[in-house]
Write a structure and sequence with these properties.
Elements: E1 22-23, E2 32-33, H1 59-65, H2 70-86, H3 95-99, H4 101-105, E3 112-117, H5 124-139, E4 151-155, H6 166-172, H7 177-199, E5 202-207, H8 214-222, H9 244-248, E6 255-261, H10 265-277, H11 296-315, H12 319-322, E7 331-335, E8 340-349, E9 356-358, H13 364-373, H14 378-392, H15 397-413, E10 425-426, H16 429-432
Parallel strand pairs: 3-5, 3-6, 4-5, 6-7
Antiparallel strand pairs: 1-2, 7-8, 8-9, 8-10
Helix pairs in contact: 2-7, 6-7, 7-8, 10-14, 10-15, 11-13
Length: 439
Amino acid sequence: MLPACRPTMTDPQEPALGESARRSPPPGSSNRLSSNPPQPLPAPTTTSTTSTTTTPEAIPSILSTWQLTAAQHAQILHNEILPRELYPYLPTPRPAESTNPDTQSRPRRRPLAILILGQTGAGKTRLAPLLLDALQQQQQQPHHNDGKGVVVHLIADTFKTYHPHYQTCLLTHPSHASRLAGSDAAAWLREVCSHAAHAGVDVLVESACRRRGEFEALVRVFSPPHPSSHHLCSASSLPEPPGERAVAGYEYEYDVRVAVLAVPACLSRLGILTRYYRRLPEAGPARGLPVRLTPRGVHDESYAGLAAAVGWLDRQQQDDGCGGSPAVVGRVVVLRRNGLVVYDNQTMEDGQGGKERWRDRLAALEALEMERARGLSREEEAAAEEDLRVLRGLGDPKVDRELDEIERLMAGLRGRQEGVFPDLKPLDVQDFVAIGGER
């Protein structure tokens, strides 16, 4: 049996898909759920459904002319991204603290880096505001106030919008827009994280893990270098940017925690269609993202990339993989879209010289794979059937073909055991983001 879990994020009976239960976010907050079901809408007439008559053979040449040079990439980072995504949220030193020796000598707590992983359409937008709110509440406690009180919330997808040709590609060749901007977006996210780590602020990052090595690279930003784990036992395809370690400086040793959303492919693919055709908030235009329909190929790459990232998460801490080096991640939870936890593991001191060990066996990938292959619950089936009914009502042949595939995937799960993990409990978000020890 996999490790037990902790109590309470939300009602365990909340529909796992629940796309028909959302609302627009209040001003200044992230997207949240709602009890007001949106009305079915016709297929939106947005730029993401428009394409030119350019031949497929010509597209690679066109995209190559839109690639950024290293100088352009850096200019956008420093002139547009950092001033917008990071600098407004960095604390300024308090004069009294900078001159008071008592304040200077006071131990500072370890900052948190919380990474939310899930394939496109898995529901990261639902989980992020819950963790963000919980962390902000903890920061307000007097005994946790270290003068920063900042959470930098970064969403991997939003960095695509800084690519100067992303909007044009979305208009003319929508199925290639993510590929055009994805590499630069991943690097920008990593670089912003490096600057945030240099400031020692708490960070919440949402990532779909589409590209091999993305997750490992993010972990490297927030983990202190150890001689035996300099490469984190991973042949990442995302090489470390020049000077990244110098930028981060590792003045702060981060407490890195990972939340993995384990969602069957049929539900995430259905979620993508539902959020787009019903114009749900997370489809855009939040934080500069246009309303977009994620291509099937992007979803599938993300689906596979998540499994690779979670597999690395298990392997990197095994003694035969990293020679017993300190853990780069302190806690991992795998949960369903409705917040029920199927796996919860964390490091703890073994009582022998302060060395760290995992409390339970490393089985995050096992939990992810079991969740993806299990039968749907009654609540999940009901919510999915409602979304299918609404989308069928659009009368769009392309959508109908996609729905046919989704229904076949759902049918393949029927009859499989749903109750693989007994007595599941909701994630205790306050416990998961609990501010811990000193650096």
